[in-house]
Design a protein that fits this description.
Elements: H1 10-15, H2 24-32, H3 35-44, H4 51-67, H5 71-81, E1 86-88, E2 94-96, H6 100-121, H7 128-143, H8 156-170, H9 175-186, H10 199-220, H11 223-228, H12 235-252, H13 257-275
Antiparallel strand pairs: 1-2
């Protein structure tokens, strides 16, 4: 099932909102927990030296496949960048980035991210009809890559069921995911959160963002993922996360939608411009 992906549709409206990025770290972690994605990132990028660089490079390009007029062309370019990403993981299992289930999982986490942002950080509630329409638009989004549609669930209920199954049965603690979890739990004085900037800006950014980022990352994760990988989360954590989400929902009521969308576009444009030369930088 597909639906038109065009300005004004549900996916366009949610993706063009800054809040769409808030569950992004959780989505990235779930990508790294997938054996094929984790191996590809670990072996074909500088992830272990600069984990956040992958986010900085990827998100502006992926969001452009929704929002840019040439979104389909951009999606095909992203697909083609993955043609040479393959090999064997630490358990000698073969993998390739364009293997249908592997490529679908990477996209599925972004689909999940859009729904999670709408559920947690937006005041309005999606109806059952909205869920189906929004999901159908994400299927159209996926079709822009020009890869196999075989793994794509036919409706939102089937998507949720398959997503839960992968989380419960197929994800594992890859080396890349273990590194990301360690940074999320404990922080790192040697890892830059920002694509550019001096030491003072980096320290300020870390002071302001590190603890809330950890709370949002772990709070957005599906409970089954937290349980399987022993991610600490108790009643006080849930209370803090719920309070943060509530403050976000209330605070955005005072932000004009035009300013919100302008801020997202300019942030993605700036990060993309700063990291374009480093896109899919091979490991040394």
């Amino acid at each position: 099932m597909t639906a038109p992906l065009e300005p004004g549709c549900l996916l366009w409206r949610y993706a063009s909102d800054l809040r769409s990025l808030l569950p992004g770290a959780a989505a990235g972690l779930m990508q790294l927990l997938h054996p094929g994605v984790g191996a590809g990132v670990g072996q074909h990028s500088a992830f272990f030296d600069a984990p956040f660089d992958r986010i900085h490079r990827s998100v502006p390009q992926i969001w452009a496949t929704i929002l840019a007029p040439d979104g389909t062309d951009r999606a095909r370019q992203i697909r083609d960048l993955h043609r040479t990403i393959g090999g064997a993981d630490e358990h000698r299992r073969r993998y390739h980035a364009l293997e249908p289930e592997t490529f679908w999982w990477a996209h599925a986490t972004f689909t999940w991210e859009i729904f999670k942002a709408a559920e947690v950080f937006h005041p309005e509630t999606l109806t059952a009809e909205d869920h189906e329409r929004l999901y159908a638009e994400t299927v159209t989004w996926y079709s822009r890559y020009g890869v196999s549609m075989r793994p794509v669930p036919p409706d939102y209920a089937a998507f949720r069921s398959k997503f839960w199954h992968v989380c419960a049965k197929e994800l594992e603690l890859t080396p890349a995911a273990a590194r990301a979890l360690d940074i999320a739990r404990s922080g790192s004085d040697t890892i830059s959160l920002l694509p550019v900037g001096g030491a003072m800006a980096e320290r300020a950014g870390r002071l302001v963002a590190e603890r809330p980022l950890r709370l949002v990352t772990f709070g957005c994760l599906p409970p089954i993922v937290r349980e399987r990988f022993d991610i600490p989360w108790g009643p006080m954590d849930q209370a803090r996360f719920s309070a943060l989400a509530l403050a976000n929902r209330q605070g955005y009521r005072m932000v004009p939608s035009g300013l919100n969308h302008w801020a997202l576009r300019n942030m993605l444009r700036y990060i993309g411009a700063q990291t374009r030369e480093q896109r899919y930088r091979p490991a040394a």
